[in-house]
C-alpha cells in the first residue's frame, strides 16, 4: 500500500489561506470579550446605583421612624439603617443631616427634613478598574466613560412644624 503525499505549490491559493481562520477567530474573540466586559462593568454600575438608591430610601424611612419614636438623633439612626445593606469594608459612605425643608409644613410653619446621602467611589472596584484599562486601550477614546463616584440622596419630611 502506497501512502499518498499531497504537495502544494508554495504560491497556491490553499497555502496562502493557512492560519486565516485562527486569525479571524482571535480577532472576533477579542471583540467579544471586550463587549462582555463592557456589559458586565456597566451592569455592575447600574446594580450599585440601585443599591445606593435603595439604601438611602431605607435610611430616610428609618429617620422618620426614629423621629416619631422619640429618638433625638434621627440622622445617626438613618445612616446606621442605610449602611446595614453594605459590608463594613465596602467603600460606601453615608451622610445624614436634618435641615429645614424647602417647603412649608402644616399651617405654613417651617417643616424639618432629613437628608440621607450615600456615595460610592468606583475606583475601589477591581472589575471597573479593569474595564477602564480596556477602554483606555481603544484608540481615540478617553477614560471618562465610567463615573468616578456614584451618589444617591433621599429627602424626607420628619416634622410638620416646630416641635
Automatic annotation (TrEMBL):
<keyword id="KW-1133">Transmembrane helix</keyword>
<feature type="transmembrane region" description="Helical">
    <location>
        <begin position="21"/>
        <end position="48"/>
    </location>
</feature>
<protein>
    <submittedName>
        <fullName>TadE family protein</fullName>
    </submittedName>
</protein>
<feature type="domain" description="TadE-like">
    <location>
        <begin position="19"/>
        <end position="61"/>
    </location>
</feature>
<dbReference type="InterPro" id="IPR012495">
    <property type="entry name" value="TadE-like_dom"/>
</dbReference>
<keyword id="KW-0472">Membrane</keyword>
<dbReference type="Pfam" id="PF07811">
    <property type="entry name" value="TadE"/>
</dbReference>
<keyword id="KW-0812">Transmembrane</keyword>
